[in-house]
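Hey, can you fold this one?
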Amino acid sequence: MNSLTARLQQELKRIKPATVLLVEPDPYLGRMLSDYLADYTCQVVENGRDALATCQQTPPHLLLMDTDLPDMAALELFQQLHPLKLSHHIPVFFLAQPDDGRDQRMKALEMGVDDYIAKPFDVVELQFRVKNALPRPAQSVDLVTGQPGWPAIHQDLQARLNQPDWTLLLIHVAHMGAYQDVYGAVAGQRVRRTIADLLNGALDELGELDDLVGVLSTHEFVLITRNQQPCWLLTQLQQQFAAAIRRWYSPAELAAAQIQLSDGRRAPLMMLATAVVPARSASFATPLEVIDAAETLRQRQYPATVEKAVPSLQAIFATS
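Sure. Predicted structure:
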């Protein structure tokens, strides 16, 4: 496993599933709901008092409560939790009794309850309602470029693993550390935004609706595309990058094809070291295997660009 894949694997371990608090006095229904919501970390309490204490100690990402609680009315509990709901953006769902009237439903929704689901309910529909209300990994973005980060890339690749018609392009901005050493972090951010714009422009012209541009680190991008000529896309990107780079270096640096660092050493100018991995090139079991194959290929094709120390994924945010 190469260093890029190892870093991304560690990043996945830090991504914790959303937490759902189930306030359900019926133990059987509580267990059943936990099973159906197994993609999340579910905690079950049987009364309003325990729900209030749990939320105050560790606010969940979503609260799913039965309206028939043994110790207080569901709306009374909701009123006590309302300040917490607002400050932590917690969706609250009511699991209502079959005989709850329209006035009860309207009152709860008017007070701010996010969803009112009557029993008996369709568990698949409930799963979708919960999923749509919770924050999604795909919403994680790189703050400099505005492009999806590794959680979103992982999710996209996971959905494509059994499909034959996609290609992953890994784009590594080599020698970017040297450029930032001379010109500063703000200039480096400009480079990253430019590359993101070039990739998005390529997709606007030649991509499919479900193609994706994403960011793996401060100097690594991916493009996942169903375009049948991905190498032509890369050629276009390389040409546009070569034109853009002339704005970032002095004429003397361009002529020498080198830049002088603050300690007197010289380093090459930035370049794009890329790799192309079609889905049909191997049977990939996980998204990490795709990234590992791409990075291994990139290092083999561009050995001079393999850097000893690469910034961690956290640097995406640290330099933002």
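The chain has two domains: 7-135, 139-318. Let me know if you want another pass with a different chain boundary.
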